[in-house]
Amino acid sequence: MIKAIIFDFDGVIVDSNHVKTDAFVKLFRGYPASIRELVRKYHLQNGGMSRFDKFRHIYADFIKEPLPKEKFDELCGDFNRLVMDGVIKAPFFDGVIDFLERNRDAYAMYIVSGTPDFEIKEIVRRRGLDKYFIDVYGSPRSKKELIEILLAEHGHRKEEAVFVGDSINDYEGAVGSGVGFIAKIDDNLGVEQFPGVDLKISIKGMAELGRHLDGLGE
Length: 218
What we know:
Elements: E1 4-7, H1 17-27, H2 33-45, H3 51-63, H4 69-89, H5 96-103, E2 108-116, H6 117-126, E3 135-139, H7 143-154, E4 161-165, H8 168-177, E5 180-184, E6 202-203, H9 209-213
Helix pairs in contact: 1-2, 1-4, 2-3, 4-6, 7-8
């Protein structure tokens, strides 16, 4: 029986993936269109990955230049300024608040995000969501590490927890930590979210989530 639900944030709780996609493209506007398109696709295909790892990958594999610490820090600061207000203002997906309100006493609920820890905690607080979530975890640790830390800190067994995410990184984090996984599908994203994965459970909206929880993990 499921006792704990772990949610990714962007693309699951709020419709904010486009905010971060636009920010990534804007940060690399001085590069050719081919590079910007690689950046855009890589971000979309790895929605659950931290921006820190994305910047390192972009420089190593696309730009093929070293990434000095000064430039890395500049990118992180610029990205934060570009996305913070946008994510705070982004709309909730249909059914999210209703689900959280109806289930706040039925399940222990948490956020595990690829957004930096200090930032996702501030976003959750400013959006008035902290009343629903027992704890909030963010990068630079991987999703797998964060889920394992969450389980240990709050005394949950892995078979009693499920992670709801919208990217291959979310799936890998759930599988790696041994918790169940529910895929949030976005038909408008423009990329394959879970390439090569045989998903057991997928949903397109939060209204569907409740229908899958009762039998999961039994």
